[in-house]
Amino acid sequence: MLIIIITCVVSGESILCDTCTCKNSIINCTENGLMDILDLWDHSDVLKDATLMHFDDNGILQVKILPPSKVRYLSLRKNKINKIDKMAFTNLKLLLELDLSYNSLTAESLNPDIFKINNEDTSRPGSLIHLRLDYNNIHSLLPHTFKELSNLVSLTLAGNPLTVIDRATSFALSSLPMLKILNLSNTSLNELPDHLLHTPRFLEILNLSNNKFTQIPQGLDEAHALQRLDFSSNPIKNILSFPKMASLKVLHLTHMPELNNIGPRAFSLLNVLEEFHCTHNNKLKSIDPTAFSYKLNDGLESELWPQIIKLDLSYNALGYLDSRLLSRWDILEELNLQGNKWICDCVNQWLVSTLAPMVESRHPEFLNDFTCQEPIEMSGISILDLDHRHYHMRCLDFYNSRPERDGVLLIGILVGVILAIPFTMGIMMCCAKRKNTLSYYHRIFNQNKSPYAPDYQLRETSIYQPTSIITEGY
Questions:
Q1: In a domain? residue 92
Q2: Within a domain: residue 100?
Q3: pTM for this structure?
Q4: What's the CATH code of the domain at 164?
Q5: 96-126: string of b/e by CB count within 10 Å (b at 16+)?
Q6: Interval 230-243 mean pLDDT
Q7: Other beta carbons within 10 Å of 127
Q8: Residue numbers of the domain that contains 64
Q9: Between 460 and 100, where is the model more confident?
């Protein structure tokens, strides 16, 4: 493709293209030490015709009213902006995306009038559809912050110290009727206010990751059209129930340091779920077999399941996986079970016979760390290798003994018995010999008894004396 390099004429114009990169209607002034955009903007035809502008990583403190331009994407991220003039963007009629992330903006910096178009054309709705305000110093929003942005589709507030969504902030968010994407990650939230998600009826993607929620907020059930939810990195210990979200298709529950259990019917109200990403939860040991299943309200006893096509359970602490968790494992497009603490006994035989070959045929890269951890004799053995060897795993007994040690244990018992027999006989012989020795000394002792000994002792002694000695006594 022909690359057109736009060259600036120095005489009477700015030297923009001498300090920045100008290529294909793209102006890149990243890391140029700029303090004011207008220093380059004045008298420059290049900026008037540019459609993408990057002024990132500079020292800009204030955004003043910008001259007319055809720009559609304007990035001012990673500056030091703490002030924006009223109607600063009013001349950017075609602006669709504005990135103000990683600056020093506050609620006061975001005066509603900064997005105002102009006094003569107040009927024209704002054209901006994507706004990034992440990683600023925003603790709250003024109620009418976005009143000029009725067409806004995507809003990012990640990394701001909101802590709570107060009434003013809630009002500001609720004033965005066309909003489809909302990012509130890493904002120290621990709850959502009632009815926050009721007004943005078209909200499809919500990111609440890396916050301080200790339970699933019930207000999620007011998200009418929500399709993707990221609830990762929250300190929840047990997931017992998710509120009803009739449109939710993708759910992320990753890097949750306290999560140890997913209970019965936990996701039974997520009937159209298609993707479940539950990974890197170091304490997650069990997922109830009925976690996804549900029953209809017509009284039928039959179980139903959502048609999940992507299931990622990698790098948890799972030892067992019940085959009843899903109704159709064969329709999975992606299955990742790596990095768990799989117990290789007969209960998990289906991992070897069914799931391992399924993963091998579709995503063999997901088998690099799909190994046994227990019993100890099988630790580190690849589950896929067990399938290739047509290996049938044994069952643990009632006391949870390790069957792989049975042969060694029996041999040990036999050797012990063989060694014990001569040892026991030797002890018995020693005891018998010692008894004979004691009898001998007992006879000698009685022969030297005193003549004053009682008659019954003499009579007893005389029984063991030789005949010649008895004769001499008479």
A1: yes
A2: yes
A3: 0.79
A4: 3.80.10.10
A5: bbbbbbbbebebebbbbebbbbeeeeeeeeb
A6: 96
A7: 16
A8: 16-188
A9: 100
